[in-house]
Specification:
The complex is a heterotrimer.
Chain A (H helix, E strand, L loop, with lengths): L1 H17 L9 H13 L3 H6 L1 H27 L4 H11 L3 H12 L3 H26 L3 H4 L7 H35 L7 H10 L3 H21 L2 H16 L6 H11 L3 H10 L8 H41 L10 H16 L2 H12 L3 H25 L11 H23 L1 H10 L8 H10 L3 H29 L10
Helix pairs in contact in A: 1-15, 2-11, 4-7, 4-9, 4-12, 5-7, 6-7, 7-9, 10-11, 10-17, 15-18, 15-20, 15-21, 15-22, 16-18, 17-18, 18-19, 19-22, 20-22, 21-22
Chain B lengths: L1 E10 L2 E11 L4 E5 L6 H11 L4 E4 L11 H6 L8 H9 L3 H13 L15 H14 L4 E5 L7 H14 L2 E5 L3 H7 L2 E6 L2 E7 L5 H9 L1
Parallel strand pairs in B: 3-6, 3-7, 4-5, 5-6
Antiparallel strand pairs in B: 1-2, 7-8
Helix pairs in contact in B: 4-5
Chain C lengths: L1 H17 L3 E6 L8 H16 L2 E4 L5 H9 L5 E4 L1 H10 L4 E6 L7 E6 L18 E4 L5 H15 L3 H4 L2 E4 L3 H10 L4 E5 H9 L8 E6 L7 E4 L3 H5 L3 H10 L4 H5 L6 E3 L6 H10 L5
Parallel strand pairs in C: 1-2, 1-3, 6-7, 6-8
Antiparallel strand pairs in C: 3-10, 4-10, 4-11, 5-8, 5-9
Classes of the chains: A mainly alpha, B alpha/beta, C alpha/beta.
């Protein structure tokens, strides 16, 4: 465990040499002061003006998560099949913003795009977690069923009731994530909160931005009071009715997109220049095209994404190790502990994309703001979990009194394994975020994908998105291997 | 009806049954006795495997679904007799027809007040009765029961064993309470370290035979 | 599952209604995007009165979103930049540029610099910008990206990332001014109309930033309509639309763009933009 930790820490330090930490703004503190002023003088009237965006944020999340649960459950049934597993890994390896980028040209900037962008990656996540929940569930009730019952009856009598509570708990956690995703989709133009948040930040109207953010926190905090088991279906139906007016679907677009626009340029070149829009199959030229894209954009993007990911991974770890004592009963009295844990909740409720956006506004597009944003968000989540975990440790009477000794000799050795598991569990999440932040101007994969979109080159954008997904799948399985070899379990991490 | 001829069963290299030969006819009431670890449960499961589609089984650890009500847990006994749609309908709303058949069984076990209670909230003894109710409800003439009264008061245990022997034609039990075995079974099989030590009608089982079984 | 199928069916029928002859249009978000709805809502009212069909404005967040909305028929009309117009028309065969602002015949990009760079205004290409940090506007902008990149490449024979110490994309012209003024980037390039408007509104501190070079002129913004508009809204619709645009004389409406007035335009005027985009590598050949 120590060796692995040192190996990763060493890699991160090496990566630091390639990263760029320049603060570009001449006077970042001035802007920060204006932001602080905005936080103190929130303009709630602005939120009233954008109530439709608020409603959209909620309806997109409800519809998206509902569809994801539905299709995720179906996929979970066939999760033993390797192709299904790979398919799920692939769809969840693509960030919801990238999915929105893919669907934007197909269905347009509307509810359909937003809902699909949430539903697809979350379906992959649900499939995996539901299958895991099922695998790890109590098998004894199944033994009591008549052996020749129909599999569907068996499932609904012997499995579903047993795992229902876990499914519900996990789904409600994911609904919260879905709301975050729904909000940030606005940053690329969907009509949710992010749309107005981006405008407010861009134009420096921080009072509006603060008000929108406060209302978003309230929304998340209030979930447990109004999203009740019996009411959920009602909300979903209501959400579908609300958005139904805006659902557009054009087969022409879908066909044009999938059978023409995303095909590599060399296949379309001749048809575009003579106006016939015909296709030709030229494997040699397609290969050359792929090679060029990879050399000029794919590899530089991969390199920067990996560097950022590795620094963030270790940075998050260091941050967590420093912060988790603040929320543990062994180190803090009740009130300071409570205040720190509220602070952690606020940080992890803020979507990392928004954190990054704010920091980039302050310091310009270097890796520093990105590292801070991803590190803070993930650090807050893992600190919370590690703190909980530390609280489970029962101290012996002869435990050291000095906090430093207590930390290093009693608590840390016992929580370190699970801490590492949490950290590695979020490795691929950090990579996905590192890639996506390229949209904000860093030279990670997101930058090149966004550029390809701007240049109206869907073929290139899709190729780069697929590469991003493969990197993500690679990191996901590396993380699994590392966790298995270290024999550490992140069981709590799924219910974070 | 059941016949094993020189069967051995082992778990993870440890031999649980050694060269067992046994034959059980329809309508017999058999009790398997012996010290713990003698292979009673294994023999029970091995016999059950032969006719499992037509048998009911009361598991030692009940194998109930704690999240479902007593009604549903009992209903599970006939899950394979109905169409899936009808099963799901019963899951959502217990059908009158099924309730009418289940309530008398629960009454006989003193469980009728718990019909709609979640099994997870019941005591061990109540759960064990639920498991017995399920086995009785099952459409089968054969019942296997692995220590079916282990969590039930001794003075009620007799009544429950009587109920079981009344309702099912062929009864195969494993029991650690020898007196109950002698009272309700017609044939006693003594097991020790995976061997059948004796297999006799209840009238031929002597005290000395029993004390030897539990001492050696 | 049944209810689910029912929902999808009801959406599809709903969406049928939504398609009932509404002309939707969008505009590239090239400057401050707040209150877009108010600004362009008035333009929608004007067009609706002139054309006798209901007209709806759809706000977008990026240039590429406006191009995609046009390609997938979410909007049938759009106020594009030179480059986004070319991209959109390539994606929708038969679509036409029908109008442009009077100023768009001779459009100019301004290169601006922060005072701390010591760069002075000049009539020739400002060579001193090499090695500085530099921000474009949006990646899809003509005046904020395509033309400045073209002149940079033409002069240095290198890509901007090799010329400058750091290259950024601010997102829009207003932000370019803000970033250079704040010193986040030393040099920037933007649409001259936005510069002049913000200058007259007093948003620019001329002690901190100033224009260092004005590019040669080129053709820029345009109104582009889908070719199937006549089919959808009735014969002669496109020419009616063209007249409505060129006859717009309410200064409040024109200020949304901001243009003095609109004049007729056609696709061939934008050939040079296509050629430049191919040279720069934004459009493949």
């Amino acid at each position: 465990m120590t060796r692995t930790s040192l190996l990763f820490a060493g890699t991160a330090i090496l990566c630091l040499f390639f990263a760029d930490f320049e603060i570009l703004t001449l006077n970042p503190w001035q802007e920060l002061r204006r932001m602080a002023q905005g936080v103190l003088t929130p303009d709630f009237l602005a939120v009233y003006e954008i109530k439709v965006a608020f409603l959209n944020t909620i309806t997109f999340a409800f519809c998206g998560i509902f569809l994801a649960i539905l299709s995720g459950s179906i996929l979970a049934f066939c999760f033993e099949f390797r192709p299904v597993r790979l398919f799920c890994a692939f769809i969840r390896a693509i960030h919801e913003i990238f999915w929105a980028i893919i669907f934007l040209p197909v269905v347009g900037l509307n509810s359909t795009c937003g809902i699909l962008a949430i539903a697809i990656p979350y379906a992959g996540i649900f499939a995996k977690v539901f299958a895991e929940i099922r695998q790890e569930s109590d098998q004894l009730p199944l033994k009591g069923l008549p052996p020749h019952s129909h599999p569907i009856s068996k499932f609904f009598f012997g499995v579903f009731p047993v795992i229902y509570a876990d499914l519900k708990h996990y789904s409600s956690y994911r609904l919260e994530c879905g709301l975050r995703s729904s909000a940030i989709l606005g940053f690329i133009g969907l009509p949710t909160l992010g749309f107005h948040l981006e405008t407010a930040f861009r134009e420096g109207t921080y009072s509006q931005a603060a008000a929108i953010l406060f209302c978003f926190y309230l929304l998340i905090a209030s979930l447990k009071y109004w999203v009740k088991e019996k009411a959920v279906l009602f909300y979903v139906v209501l959400s579908f009715i609300v958005i139904s007016k805006e659902i557009t679907f054009s087969w022409n677009n879908i066909i044009r997109f999938f059978t023409y626009e995303i095909l590599p340029w060399p296949m379309r070149r001749a048809g575009v220049s003579d106006g016939s829009y015909s296709l030709e199959f030229a494997p040699g030229q397609v290969w050359a095209w792929i090679e060029t894209v990879m050399m000029e954009e794919g590899f530089p993007g991969l390199w920067n994404t990996l560097i950022l990911t590795q620094i963030v991974l270790v940075g998050t770890g260091v941050l967590t190790l420093m912060v988790f004592p603040l929320v543990s009963r062994h180190f803090q009295e009740r009130w300071p502990r409570r205040i720190s844990s509220y602070l952690l909740i606020v940080i992890r409720t803020t979507p990392e994309y928004i954190l990054a956006y704010i920091f980039l506004q302050l310091w310009g597009p270097s890796m520093l703001p990105a590292i801070l944003a991803i590190g803070l968000h993930n650090g807050a989540i893992i600190s919370h979990l590690s703190g909980q975990n530390a609280d489970l440790v029962r101290l012996k009477v002869d435990a050291p009194r000095k906090k430093v000794n207590l930390y290093f000799f009693e608590i840390l050795p016992r929580v370190y394994g699970q801490f590492l598991a949490f950290l590695f569990y979020r490795w691929e999440v950090m990579m996905r975020e590192s890639a996506i932040l390229g949209i904000l101007g860093l030279y990670t994969l997101g930058f090149y994908i966004d550029s390809a979109m701007s240049d109206d080159k869907m073929d290139k954008a899709i190729l780069l998105i697929v590469i991003t997904a493969m990197l993500n799948m690679g990191i996901d399985s590396t993380s699994q291997i590392v966790r298995r070899r270290l024999k550490i379990s992140s069981k709590l991490a799924t219910s974070s | 009806m059941f016949e094993l001829d020189n069967v051995s069963v082992s778990y993870k290299d440890a031999l649980a049954l050694k060269d067992i030969s046994i034959r059980i006819e329809e309508g017999e009431k058999v009790a398997l006795i012996g010290p713990s670890g003698s292979g009673k449960t294994t023999l029970l499961y091995t016999l059950y495997e032969l006719e499992k589609n037509y048998s009911a089984f009361v598991h030692q650890n009940y194998a109930l679904v704690p999240q479902l009500s007593v009604f549903h847990n009992v209903y599970i006994g006939r899950l394979d007799n109905h169409k899936t749609a009808y099963n799901l309908l019963n899951l959502l709303k217990p059908q009158q027809k099924e309730v009418e058949q289940i309530v008398p069984i629960l009454e006989a076990l003193g469980m009728e007040v718990f019909l709609n209670k979640r099994v997870g909230t019941l005591s061990g003894g109540q759960q064990q009765r639920t498991a017995i109710a399920r086995a009785i409800f099952r459409k089968s003439n054969i019942i296997f029961a692995d220590e079916p009264v282990s969590s039930i008061d001794p003075h009620q245990a007799g009544a429950i064993l009587e109920l079981i022997t009344q309702r099912k034609k062929t009864v195969i039990l494993s029991l650690h309470a020898v007196d109950l075995a002698l009272e309700f079974a017609e044939r006693i099989v003594g097991l020790h370290f995976g061997h059948i030590v004796f297999d006799l009608p209840v009238s031929k089982v002597s005290d000395s035979l029993l004390s030897r079984l539990y001492q050696s | 599952m049944k209810t689910f199928a029912f929902f999808w069916l009801s959406f599809l029928s709903f969406s049928f209604f939504a398609f009932a002859q509404t002309l939707s249009f969008t505009a590239i978000p090239d400057q401050d995007t707040s209150r877009l709805q108010q600004r362009f809502g008035k333009v929608a009212n004007y067009l609706s009165n002139q054309l006798g069909v209901s007209v709806k404005y759809i706000p977008v967040k990026s240039y590429s979103a406006s191009v995609n909305a046009f390609k997938n028929d979410q909007v049938q009309l759009a106020w594009f930049g030179g480059l986004s117009g070319v991209q959109a028309r390539r994606g929708v065969p038969g679509s036409q540029a029908i109008a442009q602002g009077e100023e768009d015949q001779k459009f100019v990009t301004y290169f601006i610099a922060h005072a701390s760079t010591g760069l002075q205004a000049s009539d020739t290409f400002p060579e001193g910008i090499a090695g500085k940090t530099f921000t474009f506007g949006s990646k899809g902008s003509t005046s904020g990206r395509l033309m400045p990149e073209f002149f940079v490449r033409q002069h240095f024979k290198k890509s901007p990332r090799d010329v400058f110490k750091r290259v950024g994309f601010s997102g829009d012209h207003s932000k370019t001014i803000a970033l250079v003024q704040a010193g986040s980037y030393q040099v920037g390039a933007l649409n001259y109309k936005v510069w002049e408007r913000e200058l007259s509104e007093g948003k620019i501190d001329t002690k901190k930033i100033h224009v260092i070079w004005k590019t040669p002129t080129y053709v820029d913004y345009n109104w582009t309509v889908r070719g199937d508009a006549d089919q959808k809204f009735g014969k002669g619709f496109i020419s009616k639309l063209q007249n409505a645009l060129t006859q717009m004389n309410d200064s409040e409406l024109l200020n949304s763009f901001p243009r003095k007035r609109f004049i007729k335009a056609d696709n061939s005027m934008y050939e040079p933009i296509l050629k430049t985009a191919v040279d720069v590598g934004i459009i493949e050949k």
